[in-house]
Amino acid sequence: MAGIVSERILSDVQESFSFHGCTKSKWDGIDFEQKRTLTPITTGTSVLGMVFDGGVIIAGDMLGSYGSLARFRNCQRVIKVNDNIIFGASGDYADFQFVRSLIEDKVIEEESYHDGFSLKPKSLHCWLTRILYNRRSKFDPLWNTFIVGGIQDGEPFLGQVDKIGTCFETPTVATGLGAYIAQPILRGLYEQKGKVSLQEAKEAIERCMTILFYRDARSFHKYHLGIVTKDSATVEGPFELKTNWDIGLLIKGYN
């Protein structure tokens, strides 16, 4: 009797909700879970990174875009991993939170050995390529691009890893729309100066973040700065950009 009732309930559900591709086998156990692996929902835009004389700086704004809606305005995407590493992420925010938890577990595991060794930036960079490539190979990618910055053997390190595990080391890096707008500015400064001071790097990052706020509809005017040197690693901010929109009054239809 109970089996007959269950079949009738299942039949009523299927008739009431005409979900595409809904077959009886898919409704076994009435599992309403939805998977959106290939459709990122809450995303973050560009993250910028640059090597300066004695360290690395990484910047990312605080906006989590729900599709095209500027929904979440307190999403920190630049974090400190340990005293030698800072880490930034663009792309799906949920996937970033998942990877952040994996990194935290790895740091705890490394410290539990009490052998005097800690996670190094190149090791984290290499490990992330394995994680992302493994998920990509399962057709279940983590929809992110990560930037790893740190100090290893007294030298600054800056590297990028994308969602299919492609990685490279570079003195300047930008993800998202920043790869087209901010990267030429950062690269030009680095090639012109050779060794960039921390203050010059901060000014260049601020300029790039301002331009991105003007040009990128998914960007925000508040951002965090991650700075790592041989002495420490810190995440500063949030900082607020100074912008000027007076030119908007000259555009027909603006108001």
TrEMBL record:
Q: Where in the cell is it found?
A: Cytoplasm; Nucleus
Keywords, sorted A to Z = Cytoplasm, Nucleus, Proteasome
Pfam family for this entry, one? Proteasome
Query: GO annotations under biological process?
Result: proteolysis involved in protein catabolic process
Annotated TM spans: none
Q: Which GO terms describe its cellular component?
A: cytoplasm; nucleus; proteasome core complex, beta-subunit complex
Is Nucleus given among the entry's keywords?
Answer: yes
Question: What SUPFAM superfamilies does the annotation carry?
Answer: N-terminal nucleophile aminohydrolases (Ntn hydrolases)
Please give the family membership noted in the entry. Belongs to the peptidase T1B family.
Briefly state the protein's biological role.
Non-catalytic component of the proteasome, a multicatalytic proteinase complex which is characterized by its ability to cleave peptides with Arg, Phe, Tyr, Leu, and Glu adjacent to the leaving group at neutral or slightly basic pH. The proteasome has an ATP-dependent proteolytic activity.
Q: How does it assemble?
A: The 26S proteasome consists of a 20S proteasome core and two 19S regulatory subunits. The 20S proteasome core is composed of 28 subunits that are arranged in four stacked rings, resulting in a barrel-shaped structure. The two end rings are each formed by seven alpha subunits, and the two central rings are each formed by seven beta subunits. The catalytic chamber with the active sites is on the inside of the barrel.
What is the protein name stated in its UniProt record?
Proteasome subunit beta
